[in-house]
Amino acid sequence: MGAAPRIVHKYGGNGASTFTEPVKEYAFEMACSNIRYGNGVTQEVGMDFANMKAKKVGVYTDKNVAQLPAMKVAIDSLTKAGVKFEVYDDVRVEPTDTSFIKASNFAKQHQFDAFLAVGGGSVMDTCKAANLYMSDPEADILDYVAKPIGLGKVVTCPLKPLIAIPTTSGTGSETTGTAVFDLEEMKAKVGISNRVLRPLLGIVDPLHAKHMPERVAAFSGFDVLCHALESLTAIHYSERTPRPTNPIDRPAYQGSNPISDVWSLHALGIMKKYFARSVYDPEDEEARGQMHLASTFAGIGFGNAGVHLCHGLSYSIAGMVKNYNPDDYHKSFPIIPHGLSVVITAPRVFEFTAPMCPDRHLLGAGALGADVTNAKADDAGAIISDVVREFMDKMKIPNGLSALGYDKTDIPGLVKGALPQERVNRLAPRPQVAEDLHAIYDKSMVVY
User: Of 7, 308, 356, 416, whose CA is between 20 and 30 Å from 191?
Assistant: First the structure.
């Protein structure tokens, strides 16, 4: 399986010492769900399940999406195709370990032989979890959560086929093997990440995108932006350690690579042209459709490269929410939507990481519209952070963590929740310690 770990000898004042240098990765894998895109393709989902001879489908959605045309069309299609199903419409937006367990118990009760997710990232992630924990009924909720928070077990049990129909333009979860939830005890988000969790098929129907309220379109769009920029600027796959001794242990998040770069850059190009249009004009079918596609493109990019500090820092921001409740979400509990929690530190994150690979940061800034013709490497951090800040201002993003209800006394708790997020933090091109994260949170209290 390639070279053995290299033995390194160092000499200091006390003589020689020996340690084993981790062997770096030498390969990357390309994995993605099948994708079907087009106006009205949701009507085909019943035929898809009939074609796979599904006997009983678990349909997962949330209370809001349950009332939207996406669910009506999907249910009509299943009925017309003669496919039996049970609906679980109690998915929690920004799911928790409790809501994951509840959704999994529903699947265990019915023993589905296929799954359908209709909704945003929360719905798709919950459906993935239900599939996993039904398929491995003895597993604890933390068994498959990435280390050091969970056991980081590799998924070896066979899962049932899952089809995902996204109704928001943000998570790209229809393409990935990732499921994220709030671990309530920790007050931070954690993730399960394994290629086998990814949907068999993502049905990307732009007709559903027009039903997003303005703030949902804005916040989910920033998830796309950060997916693309983080995957583009992640550590190169050949620098990641350790190299797995068995290919089944190769993580889904592998570092930037030539294939993920293509998808991430293309998503940024779409955002440059269509993001603002899609947010402020829900009747702009072209813009909403293109952003729906950009979400999928960025999902393919980060689903193979990974994300890094914007996401690693966001997990405690969302998990420690106090009283924030944004327009257009209408929840009975405080919530910082995922895309908002991710982008709020982005200007400072990219300032921090830019010195390690300024060319990559300038490439991303250029794709978003910045003039980088004569840009110097030392200016990369300022340029990319300014571009992100301009988008945030245009989309009326709140002015920093302070506008979300945090103050400087909260920073130690935010850092405590972010430090264990090694699944993503280790993909940042610049290593970081607690003091670095503290500084990023501190500088993100105000954005503009």
Answer: 356
User: Both 142 and 287 in a single domain?
Assistant: no
**Closest Cα to residue 39, out of 152, 253, 205, 232?**
205
Of 179, 172, 124, residue with least CA distance to 146:
179
Residues in the chain where the model's pLDDT stays below 50:
1-4, 8-9, 12-13
Burial zone of 14 (CB within 10 Å; 0-12 exposed, 13-18 middle, 19+ buried): exposed
- Asked if 240 and 359 touch (Cβ cutoff 8 Å), the reply is no
In whole angstroms, what is the distance from residue 99 CA to residue 79 CA? 28
Residues 417 and 304 in one domain: yes
Domain count for the chain: 2
126, part of any domain:
yes
| Pairing mode of beta strands 57-60, 85-88 | parallel
DSSP state letter for 355: G
C-alpha 198/C-alpha 220 separation (Å) is 20
pLDDT digits (tens, 9 = 90+) for 6-36: 554 455 445 555 556 779 999 999 999 999 9
* Residue 14 maps to a domain: no
198 and 247 both lie in a single domain: no
